[in-house]
Amino acid sequence: MSNEAAADKGPNAKKSYTGFLGNNLRDYGMMLSLFAIMIFFQIMTDGTLMRPVNLTNLVLQNSYIIIMALGMLLVIVAGHIDLSVGSVAGFIGGLAAVMMVQYNVHFIPATIICLVAGGLIGAAQGYWIAFHKIPSFIVTLAGMLVFKGLTLALLAGQSVGPFPQTFQKLSSGFIPDVFGGETLRLTSMLIAALLAAALVIANLRHRSNQQAHGVEDEPYAFFIGKNVVFAGAILYIGYLMATYRGLPNVLVVMFALILFYTFVTNRTTVGRRVYALGGNEKAARLSGIKTDRLTFFTFVNMGVLAALAGLIFAARLNTATPKAGLGFELDVIAACFIGGASAYGGVGKVMGAVIGAFIMGVMNNGMSILGIGIDYQQVIKGLVLLAAVFIDVYHKNK
Amino acid sequence: MNAILEMRGITKTFPGVKALENVNLTVKAGEIHAIVGENGAGKSTLMKVLSGVYPHGSYSGEIIYEGEERRFADIADSEKIGIIIIHQELALVPLLSIAENLFLGNEQAKHGIIDWNLAFRRTQELLRKVGLKESPNTLVTNIGVGKQQLVEIAKALAKEVKLLILDEPTASLNETDSDALLDLLLEFKAHGISSILISHKLNEISKVADTITVIRDGSTVDTLDCRAEAISEDRVIRAMVGRDMAHRFPKRTPDIGAPILEVRDWVVHHQIHAERRVIKNINLTVHRGEVLGIAGLMGAGRTEFAMSVFGRSYGQRISGKVLMDGREIDVSTIGRAVDNGIAYVTEDRKHYGLVLGEDIKKNVTLANLGGVSSGGVIDDLKELKVANSFRQKLRIRCSSVFQQTVNLSGGNQQKVVLSKWLFAQPKVLILDEPTRGIDVGAKYEIYTIINELAAEGKAVVMISSEMPELLGMCDRILVMNEGVFVAEFSGAEATQEKIMRAIVKAGERAA
Questions:
Q1: Chain A to chain B Cβ contacts (< 8 Å)
Q2: CB neighbour class for B150 (10 Å; exposed up to 12, middle 13-18, buried from 19)
Q3: ipTM score of the complex?
Q4: CATH number, domain containing residue B203
Q5: Is some CB atom of chain A closer than 8 A to the CB atom of B314?
Q6: Residues B507 and B456 in one domain
Q7: In sequence order, what are the beta bridge partners of B428?
Q8: 3-state secondary structure of A177
Q9: What are phi and psi of B395, to 5 degrees?
Q10: Which listed residue, of A201, A278, A369, B21, carries a Cα 20 to 30 Å from B246's Cα?
Q11: Which residue, of B425, B440, B457, is where some domain finishes?
């Protein structure tokens, strides 16, 4: 056995660069596409794209899509789909408005009630999918109609607003600057710097840990390059935002959620089980995994995140409208598939979905600045989705 | 007798791999020609070259069929001149009727309108030829695998076959169905149809084959003429594995201890038809260090019994008791059955055993994630260590434990499934057809693992349709028929004849 292992190592060590790239092409390819698209629009818009105010808007505009994409990724990895998220987000936004504006409920209990309501909605849909084996496509299609209708009923066809100031802060607030910096928000800059440092340290520790066990396969130069690029990007974006109004509150919430879901999918038993469930439900069940319950909870989770997204969207518009959330589900699902999730389940990464959402977001934003009409924007976005998935399928069949 | 088919110097490469190298194959008209070789030796690739799945130009060498060189662009080309291949995985549409399946792509139609009367008449003719007594209207999903195989053959007959290629036709058939199928081949032979039979089952081959070609590592290593002399199975195995295999089963000195798992008064009703009893009040005891075999025909209820004990993963209205070390245990869910020391290794590793898209490491730990995590967080390095130790212990051949299981050979996949269950640290392992579809060399390794487990004091219950395997491995053999145990033999006294007789007799009593 030992000589076989040695034989394995020999060629690996030699072709490590190409081998590593080949194995991780998908992950880095995504990242590179995002960079390429950003650079393209940066040039085409004469630098408007990366202006601090636009960058901040970009984050605000896409936060709710990204937050829902986190839940959708789990749903898709589990082998399902949720078409109702847009309607649910709209409904929760309406619920929040009715409570806070019409009944003067304080924003903290109102927010909690809304999140719980989202969870219950997810549970109601997950119940049919998990325990009665009704295809998720149908259940959530029904949910989409139901909650679209309920939003209309709840708001009586009217827009309801404005929200209390404190609640608006969820979307339009920025983290306060303790140093009172006028041109540069030092707190925000500091947070970005700390984050960049934390990332590098975490990567270093991970690598040394891997090295200790002889399983690291990433070429050294690659590792350095990767860290420089990422840390640089964080510092740069942090700097840009600090020169405007600092880091938006939403960004902080979103970032925490991204970290949390990355951790859940990569490192926890629950995450592992979701992948197994989507990869082969029968094998997962025969391995002792309670597949029904797991499916149920992925939908509960999706419901809560849809509710959160609904709150953020409502706070951003500062009003709840019957049309809120319309078509969100399509952007969210597209983000997951552009990000490399498989429609057959079992495959997909949180970072992929986030990048997918940013690709969509940057394109939306860039094309709007360029004055491309909403008509052709949609055409282009559709083609990008198709192309991304085609590249995936092509890569797999090769 | 002249040759119907000659394949000369066939070489086929895939990126990075030479799948076939200078393979020669000559099939005489009207003979049954067996092709044997370990998994991955290149048998299926060769047949795909022959049938046009890999078109002319994607390989080098030539195919001479009925005296002419042929260059097939696709399967339709080869089918047109009477070369029909029946793949291991049946290509039938489950929710269509037998008649519809028989003429799929070859409909009995004029101007696109199907003549159902003609189709039915022809179906009945064809079904009579293959000895299948079913209505043409019956949906394929409602008949057993054995009968489905016959439908496939009838489909080949509908296309006026001259050279029939069967890839592992009996892999999922029981003995009776297999025999019927082999008899059918002999009958075809009498009518002048040549066949190529790919099989792992050497006893079947020696029964029907006129010539045996052995392929190893992509090359033909031997051609044996069975009519000139009797060919022993050992002779064939030697050629297949390229080494002497003195014993097909590793030696073991049984050290049998106290009873460990007892199942009492076990009754199971059918998963869908609740009124049908599948397992009828049976008792079973297995001891520490014992390898207990369960023989029986397909459909006897062996898998259903095993799965119902394993966390009620099959059936409903289950009653009876399960005792581990003399104490009653709860097996009402799979999780509880596993916690109580029972593991079940499925007969269908691809559909029920593995998450094929995931790597070896993740499959190995799937049934016992708790063993590599704390507080719900997986310890990557610990997991890696576990996977590597199993890779070493069970000699899983792979580039690393990060390799996707879909890319492993059958034998190595089976070792991954075994690893998964060994890591769950069971006291009793139920192995359902543990060597199905894997080659001779890997079988020997699986047997060795089974013996090691028994030596560690675990109990192994082995369900198998291959009687030589049960005879060679088990300390005791129970024979199941229609949901009851009809006979019990010690390993020493059991013979193939005795087991068959027990099944047949039980069948007569029931009738």
A1: 83
A2: buried
A3: 0.83
A4: 3.40.50.300
A5: no
A6: yes
A7: B342, B459
A8: coil
A9: 50, 55
A10: B21
A11: B425
Buried b (16+ CB within 10 A) or exposed e, A132-160: eeeebeebbeebbebbbebbbebbeeeeb
Q: Rounded to the nearest 5°, which phi and psi values hold at B359?
A: -80, 175
Q: Say whether both B328 and B360 belong to one domain.
A: no
Fill in the DSSP letter of residue B407: G
Q: Judge: A346–B357 Cβ closer than 8 Å, yes or no.
A: yes
Domain limit, last residue, from B241, B265, B294: B241
Residues B225 and B273 in one domain: no
B228 assigned to some structural domain: yes
Our CA-based measurement puts residue A273 at a distance from the nearest CA of chain B, in whole angstroms, of 8
User: Of A76, A263, A280, which to mutate for an interface test with B (greatest number of B Cβ within 10 Å)?
Assistant: A280
Task: Give the range of the structural domain holding residue B365, as residue numbers without chain letter.
Answer: 354-425
Residues B76 and B109 in one domain: yes
Per-residue pLDDT of chain A (398 residues), as tens digits, is: 333 333 333 334 444 566 666 666 666 778 888 889 999 999 999 988 888 889 888 988 899 999 999 999 999 999 999 999 999 999 999 999 999 999 999 999 999 999 999 999 999 999 999 999 999 999 999 999 999 999 999 999 899 989 998 898 888 888 887 776 667 788 888 888 998 899 899 888 888 887 877 766 778 888 888 888 888 988 988 888 888 888 889 998 999 999 999 999 999 999 999 999 999 999 999 999 999 999 999 999 999 999 999 999 999 999 999 999 888 999 999 999 999 898 889 999 999 999 999 999 999 999 999 999 889 998 998 998 898 888 878 877 65
Residue with tokens 């990242």, as numbered in its chain: A31
In this structure, the answer to whether residues B9 and B158 fall within a common structural domain is yes
User: Who contacts B110 (Cβ-Cβ below 8 Å, separation ≥6)?
Assistant: none
Chain B nearest CA to A279, separation (Å) = 5
Q: In the structure encoding, which two tokens stand for residue A391, read together?
A: 């590249």
CA separation for the pair A238, A255 (Å, rounded): 13
Q: Cα(A299)–Cα(A294) distance, rounded to whole angstroms? A: 9
**Which string of DSSP letters, residue by residue, matches B342-405?**
EEEE-S-IIIII--TTSBHHHHHTGGGGGGGEETTEE-HHHHHHHHHHHHHHTT--SS-TTSBG
Residue A44: exposure state from Cβ atoms within 10 A (0-12, 13-18, ≥19): middle
The answer to whether the CB atoms of B356 and A282 lie below 8 A apart is no
